[in-house]
Amino acid sequence: MVAIGGGHGLGRMLAALKDFGSNATGIVTTTDNGGSTGRIRHCQGGIAWGDTRNCINQLITEPSISSMMFEYRFKGAGELDGHNLGNLMLTALDNLSVRPLEAINLIRNMLKVDVNIVPMSEHPSDLKALAIDGRWVTGETNVDEMPDELRRLDLEPEVPATKEAVAAINDADCIILGPGSFLTSIMPPLLLPEVGKAIASNSKAKLVFVDNLSPEYGPAARMTLAQKLEWCERSCQSRQIDVVLGEHAHPELDGRWNYVTTDLASANRDWRHDRVKLQKAIETLLS
Fold it and tell me: Which residues in the chain land under pLDDT 70?
């Protein structure tokens, strides 16, 4: 099982897949430039750690002093205000010349997280977007705030995919895209040529797209679901998405994709996917 994305969406998906243990792998977006993550990248460089930290947080099953430390967020009026200790711990390990993936594995072992978590790349890169008027905008936060339609997305600079991410895709029986912010969570890993090629070449895997439960903001809000699916398939060398999983019907898809409608919303927060419902839906697709 391989899930690709970032932020809260990938965290929910990996939490739904945690019973698969080490047979599940999350490939995490590393282009965030906002919040604590953005401030650390501005000062220290390196990849964005926020989405990885979020995924680990949602997979912690045994609360402990270690997990409390990893989740701790500083408050106050000083330089540390708003920083998450988990981000700083991962950055410190990175600065000690430990591979980013090895840093993640050290934290996973400390917190007893079985699901594999792999950064899409171990080299820093930023998301950039080309607007319809020919203007380029760089940085996830700026892309999210663009008032224009988008013509394309790129990474700046171009970076290689993590070899473990490619290997996981090659071995996968199921590859899941989403849920999550389409342009800033789902698309960045697909912009890596090795990732798109690996998805395209793994014909035995079922390729699944999980739709969001609530509307997005910014340029992604102005995209139809069909446009999002077309963008994914174009990045994956025209590999067709086998199943689209969502809660609301989309007649505009006009039979071009196999759209499966099922109840996925959390009982107390209808904008968030329920872990158990997600797990059952994925297991049903596989069977």
Answer: none
